[in-house]
Amino acid sequence: MSLSSTVTDGAQIVTVNAERIDAAMAIRFKEDMRSATESGPDRVILDLSEVQFIDSSGLGAIVAAMKQLGQGRRLDLAGPSPMVEKVFRLTRMDTIFNLYSSLNEAIAEQKVGM
Amino acid sequence: MAETFACSFTATELDARSGITEVVTRLRKMGIPELRVDEVQIALAEAVNNVVEHAYAGTAPGDVRIRCSLDPQRLWINISDAGAPFPDGQLPDGKAADIDVPLDQLPEGGFGWLLIRELSSDIHYQRSGGNNELSLCFEIQVTRA
């Protein structure tokens, strides 16, 4: 399993336990996300703080993971490295996802919203 | 005097990962700043993934050969493979996909050439002797102690 998951304050936190979400990892990541988020809170926070590198296959897998959640649920991203953030910005995917600089910041947002 | 190195690996996803990592480690040792190495890695990974996914699609994976040449301010990376040529002999233009669409229609791919074109300053492609020869150029300011 490339992911670990906990539920806190009404959000599910999924942590990526890998340094790379690349072409060799993308399909497994997408499948692991499907099993990890099959049921659970409407808000899923994907903790990317261990991820050092992402390529377009990995980006596509994160988009797929959000689409798998369906309407009414959302996937927020926490702790992207400058490199990961750059890939989202260059592809304009930073306009589709909420990006939080850290997991704590993403969780704090949840409390404000409640 | 340009500093050069070369490496090659089989065009599989896992060998591509270790090949890309090896190139990136050597670029860091050459004194290329970390943020710039990140950008080079993004473009390099997309170019190599394309070889794995498209050039050798439907055939046994062949070799990917990479040559890097750094003169003080310019890094050229040549990626060579013996797979299928680009469709019509042309590089994809890498237009940004339309993302102002409903959630279920968001694109899950097609970002590779967009990233390569945004991050490199010059791109050359030729088909010669049954090989694809793709060269990507990056402007570099080397920092050395």
What distinguishing features does this structure have?
heterodimer; A: 114 residues; alpha/beta; Transcription Regulator spoIIAA; five-stranded mixed β-sheet; 25% strand; B: 145 residues; alpha+beta; Heat Shock Protein 90; five-stranded antiparallel β-sheet; 5 strands
Task: Furnish the topology, listing elements before pairings.
The complex is a heterodimer of chains A (114) and B (145).
Chain A: E1 3-8, E2 11-16, E3 20-21, H1 26-36, E4 43-47, E5 53-54, H2 56-69, E6 74-78, H3 82-90, E7 99-100, H4 103-113
Parallel strand pairs in A: 2-4, 3-5, 4-6, 6-7
Antiparallel strand pairs in A: 1-2
Helix pairs in contact in A: 1-2
Chain B: E1 3-10, H1 13-29, H2 34-55, E2 63-71, E3 74-81, H3 112-119, E4 122-128, E5 131-139
Antiparallel strand pairs in B: 1-2, 2-3, 3-5, 4-5
Helix pairs in contact in B: 1-2, 2-3
Structural summary, described in words:
The complex is a heterodimer of chains A (114) and B (145). With 114 residues, chain A is an alpha/beta fold. Chain A has a single domain, classed as Transcription Regulator spoIIAA (2-Layer Sandwich). Chain A has 4 helices and 7 strands; from the N terminus they run E-E-E-H-E-E-H-E-H-E-H. In chain A, the strands form 2 sheets. A 5-stranded mixed sheet of chain A has the order 1-2-4-6-7. In chain A, strands 3-5 form a two-stranded parallel ribbon. In chain A, helix 3 (82-90) links the parallel strand 6 (74-78) and strand 7. Chain A is globular, with a radius of gyration of 13 Å. The model of chain A has no long low-confidence stretch (mean pLDDT 94). The longest helix of chain B has 22 residues, at 34-55. Chain B is globular and about 50 Å long. Chain B is built from 3 helices and 5 strands. Chain B has helices spanning 13-29, 34-55, 112-119; strands at residues 3-10, 63-71, 74-81, 122-128, 131-139. In chain B, a hairpin with a 2-residue loop joins strand 4 (122-128) and strand 5. Helices cover 32% and strands 28% of the residues of chain B. Chain B has one domain (3-139): Histidine kinase-like ATPase, C-terminal domain (Heat Shock Protein 90), CATH 3.30.565.10. Chain B has a 5-stranded antiparallel sheet, with helices on one face. With 145 residues, chain B is an alpha+beta fold. Chain B starts with a strand and ends in a 6-residue tail after the last strand. The A-B interface holds A 20, 22-24, 53, 55-57, 59-61, 63-64, 66-67, 71, 82-83, 86-87, 90-93, 95-96 and B 13-14, 16-17, 35, 38-39, 41-42, 45-46, 49, 52-53, 96, 99, 103-104, 106-112, 114-115, 118-119.
